Amino acid sequence: MNDLCADIGYRSIKHVGEQLCGDHVDVVESGENSTVVVLADGLGSGVKASILSTLTSKIISTMMAEGLSLSDCVETIAQTLPICSVRGVAYSTFTILHIVENREMELIQYDNPLTLLLRDGKNYDYPMTEMNIGGKKIYHSIIKLKEDDTFIAMSDGCPHAGIGMAYNFGWKREDIVGFMEANAAGGYTAKTLSTILLDEVNRLYGNRPGDDATACVIKIRKRVPMNILFGPPRDHDDGNRMMALFFAKEGKHIICGGTTSSIAAKYLGKKVEADLNFRSTDLPPIARIEGVDLVTEGVITVNRVVEYAHDAIGENKQYEKWGFGHDGASMISRMLFEEATDINFYVGRAVNPAHQNPELPINFNIKMNLVEDLSSCLKKMGKRIKVSYF
């Protein structure tokens, strides 16, 4: 086992005038260090395409995760899904990215644009073997993984962008390669890279997409631990034990909450100092403690982080707010969403007397719900989460 992990992010845009996207991405964990990602593109657009792509991705990802062979998966798809009576072609195209123990990528492609691989920042021509399964031409590759390898899988709505508008014959593969090479150099996360690509696709369509378009990015990176302390312990005598466990952990340390930061400062023998570079925002200011990477206010700041997390796993529209902001919530978001791969929560169950005012919209349950909500979002980003309560 190595110290690599996969950062997975994807985004879709719908055909103009449609309520549903005809592309679908499914991510299934297969053991602790293996993951199956399927991008399926249903024939046409709208409801029918959405059903076909969803069914295709669900069947393939579930079967692959259970260890069934490629030929069994493809034959099952061929027998399960219908053939278009008008065009006489099949149901749904697909790309399967099977990450095996974070050591190698098994890449299986049927009729989608060929997946790009950026290695050392440049396009890498990986080997492919052509196979015939159930009368279908399948491309199969096994690729040994390296740190910073970036895989970019697409539905055909991406290279079709700009046909008859910005380009006569769509957005050529070499142009997409150049565009992604330039942006990958920025060190962005997989989700941000998929957003950048889809924003450009949408622009080339004149913001009126003529096809569903999906980009799924997988970025291979080293594991980065992160620790976040939120709230004082229920039992006052548990304070030192909580702090000892928190500060003993490898990685950066974030503390949320005024009382919590005071306990941490006392444990470290340091002072809590106000941040003199505070910029006016609608969030409370951050503070500083020597030996701690970030100190913020508690419930209000974490609530904003949860809001950003929900958007980040969805359409990612608020990226510029948290991606470049200097407030506590933006800084926590960058650390958790972009830097961290393994996140340890240390959550105190003490009831804050200041939160018992019935006129305040904050109570103990809301605090616990914020932790659960944020943990759920981070898991959907592919993070490993451990929550310890005190």
Give your account of this protein's structure.
This protein has 2 domains: 4-222, PPM-type phosphatase domain (Phosphatase 2c, domain 1), CATH 3.60.40.10; 225-389, no CATH class. The chain is 33% helix and 27% strand. It is built from 10 helices and 18 strands. The strands form 4 sheets. Strands 2-3-4-5-9-8 form a 6-stranded antiparallel beta sheet. The chain is elongated, with a radius of gyration of 23 Å.
CATH third-level topology of the largest domain: Phosphatase 2c, domain 1
- The backbone outline, from C-alpha atoms, is elongated
CATH architecture of the largest domain, by name, is 4-Layer Sandwich
Main-sheet strand order equals 2-3-4-5-9-8
**Major sheet attributes:** 6 strands, antiparallel
Q: Count all strands and give the number.
A: 18
- For the record, what CATH class of the largest domain applies? Alpha Beta
Q: What percentage of amino acids are in beta strands?
A: 25-35%
Oligomeric organization of the protein chains: single chain
Kindly, what is the distance between the CA atoms of the first and last residues, rounded to a whole number of angstroms? 32 Å
The whole-angstrom Rg is: 23 Å
Mean pLDDT rating: 89
Order of helical and strand elements: EEEHHEEEEEEEHHEEHEHEEEHHHEHE
Number of helices: 10
Task: State the fourth-level CATH superfamily of the largest domain.
Answer: PPM-type phosphatase domain
Low-confidence stretches: none
Quickly count the domains: 2
Q: Which structural class do you get from the secondary structure elements?
A: alpha+beta
Helical content class:
25-40%
